[in-house]
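Action item from last week, closing it out:
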Amino acid sequence: MSNDDSNDDSTDDSTDDSTTAWALAARGGDPDAVEHFVRALHRDVRRYVAHLCGDPQAVDDLAQDTFLRALGSLHHFEGRSSARAWLLSIARRAVIDSYRYAAARPRLSPAPDWQLAVERAQPHGLPGFDDGIALRDLLAALPDERREAFVLTQLLGLPYAEAAEISHCPIGTVRSRVARARETLMDLLDA
């Protein structure tokens, strides 16, 4: 993570061009293109959803929901934006819809101490596990808009323009949110 704006060009344009071409070919009914499209963007979708939803148990379901929605809507995709930006917009809506669904239908836990049960179910001793927890805690301390901008640009490596498109805000707002997120994260690390 550097403080310069070199991240604008960090996303490989040929990769975005390829995934967009695969999406357009998949729209035309090419099953191989569907497979290439899903494989090329699956990791990005999972990482983005994981940072948005905060529920490790829901990540795979939300990623799958994202791809189901996308594949069902491919006939609407015209390639005016990159397939990655289009797909991450769908992922964002899938997460928002899951929050709405959960709020409308709260679930009760049968365990007397559900937090302890969740903690015991988490894997331990994996390489980088503690670092991942620390990063997750630091990111959780950021306001939602700043966290989203930071994750899109710094963790997923999207250009600021695509992050702005996904977030439905001006590019300058994304730049500001990322800068403020960096400041907050540095302050938290110093503390």
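Closing note: The mean pLDDT is 83.
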